[in-house]
Amino acid sequence: MNDQQPEPFEPLREDWQTALAVVAHPDDMEYGAASAVARWTSQGKRIVYVMVTSGEAGIDSMSPAECRPVREAEQVASAALVGVDVVEFLGHADGVLEYGLTLRRDIARTIRRHRPEIVITTNFRDTYGGVMPNQADHIATGRATLDAVRDAANRWVFPDLVDEGHQPWGGVRELWAAGSPDARHAVDTTEHFDDGVASLKAHKAYLAGLGGDMANAGEFLEASPGPPAAGSASGTPPRSRCCNCPSAEPRRPGAAGARGAGREARREARVQRRARRYRRTSWWSSRASSTAPSATSSHSW
Asked: What is the spatial distance between Cα 243 and Cα 58, in angstroms, rounded to a whole number?
């Protein structure tokens, strides 16, 4: 048995004022990143949310036409709870996003319009730590966002954007991916954890349709520990999780006893975490470069 502790996280930099969060669906920021956003907006930073889709395929009991305005309204209300007052929807179809030039162009346009210092997205790896497959829209959005940061800085990539009046923007200093299995950085969200829970709870219709463990906002976020922050002596490997994915908590016939034991273990873990009174959001971070063929980073791609 390997008892080796994971390496401590490094704190994310906070010497910036503007950020743009680009994610696939409403609720993607709320499953783990919203508490960090609440911390940053409380410092006077300005953060804009951009949803590539409206999450209209996310509730089985509602048609996309019915679901779209409900999920958009819930996202706007959710964002307001953590200090975000601008939420945009790019209108791509939910569930069938494809990485490609169209998606890169739309995200590059958004980056040029808002001209942020930091760009935020969510995990774009194939899995959540090798345990659970990532959702296809997350992968497409994250990878397109990574490339769009460079595209936004190069006037000769998507020159039609200049014709539209969107001048190049090379001022993105870093790109951060929340919830990445390759995370090496963290944010202390102790003082703003409850804000993040409230923002997830604001997705009432979505959570009601989702059901299962992921629909219990407080318990789910409490049960998502990560490796220790710098200076901390304890921690456990990140819990695999997924957003906008009804199959994230698979059920097996005859597994009721195992689920009960799992719930008891999670309750005990929550007690221990409350005793430590330190909560974290984990991030993968890359320094952006508009000239290199890929963004520079000390971590593997």
From this structure: 10
Write down the pLDDT at residue 7. 72
| Average pLDDT for the chain | 80
Q: What is the pLDDT of residues 200-255, one digit of tens each?
A: 999 999 999 988 877 778 777 877 654 443 333 333 333 333 343 332 332 233 33
Domain definitions of the chain by residue range = 10-235+260-287
Q: What distance in Å separates the CA atoms of residue 82 and residue 47, rounded to the nearest whole number? A: 10
**What's the CATH code, domain 10-235+260-287?**
3.40.50.10320
Q: Residues 134-166: pLDDT tens digits?
A: 999 999 999 999 999 999 999 999 999 999 999
The full DSSP string for the chain is: ---PPPPPBEEPP---SEEEEEESSTTTTTTTTHHHHHHHHHTT-EEEEEEEE--TTS-TTS-HHHHHHHHHHHHHHHHHTTT---EEEEEEPTT----SHHHHHHHHHHHHHH--SEEEEE--SSEETTTEEPPHHHHHHHHHHHHHHHHHH-TTSSTHHHHTT--------EEEEET-TT--EEEE-GGGHHHHHHHHHT-HHHHHHH-SGGG-HHHHHHT---SPBTT-----PPPP--SS-GGGS---TT-HHHHHHHHHHHHHHHHHHHHHT--EEEEEEEE--SSSSS-B-SS--
| pTM of the predicted model as reported, rounded to 2 decimal places | 0.78
The rounded Cα 194 to chain-centroid distance in angstroms is 17
SS (H, E, C) 211-239: CCHHHCHHHHHHCCCCCCECCCCCCCCCC
